[in-house]
Amino acid sequence: MGGRHGHGRGGMGRRGGRPLGHGDLRLLILSLINETPRHGYDLIQEIETRTGGTYKPSPGVIYPALEIIQDLGLAEVRTEDGKKTFHITDEGKAELEREAATVSAIHERLADLLRAEADVDPTDVRTAMHRLRHAIIKTVRHNMANEARQRRIVEILNAAKDEIDSLD
C-alpha cells in the first residue's frame, strides 16, 4: 500500500501537499502526450521521473483522467503493439494553447519537486535509495539499446552492494 513516500497511492511523500491542483493532471497528461504518444503506464513513470520520484500518480488516478480526456475529444486511443497509446487531437492542442500559462506553471512545480530532491538529509537512506532508483530508471529508459551502458550500471550497483555488505 502507500508508504511514507506515497508509492502506489499518488502521494507526495515526506514533503506533503498536492503537486497538482484541480484539473492540472488533465493538462499535464495532454502536454506529455503532445510531446510523444504514450500509454498509461508510461505517463505514470514519466510523471514520477519528472518529480524525482516525489509524486507517482496511481493507475486509479491516471486511467480515469485518460478516459475523461478521450470523452472530451482532447485525445484519441490507438492500439500499437498490443498497448493502448494516447495521441493528442487538434482539440487537445487547442486546449494546451488556451491553457499555456497554466501548463507552464504545472511544469515549473514539477521541476521544483525535482530540484527539492537534490537538497535532502544525508542520513536519509530511504530517500537516497529512491533517488538512485529513479536515476537508474531514467538512464536505462533513455539508453535502452546501449548494452555496454547497462552492463556498467550493473557493475556499479554490484560494487555498491558489496561495499554496503562489508559495513559492520
TrEMBL record:
Pfam families: PadR. InterPro entries: Tscrpt_reg_PadR_N, WH-like_DNA-bd_sf, WH_DNA-bd_sf. Residues 29-97 form the Transcription regulator PadR N-terminal domain. This is Transcription regulator PadR N-terminal domain-containing protein. It comes from Hyphomonas chukchiensis.
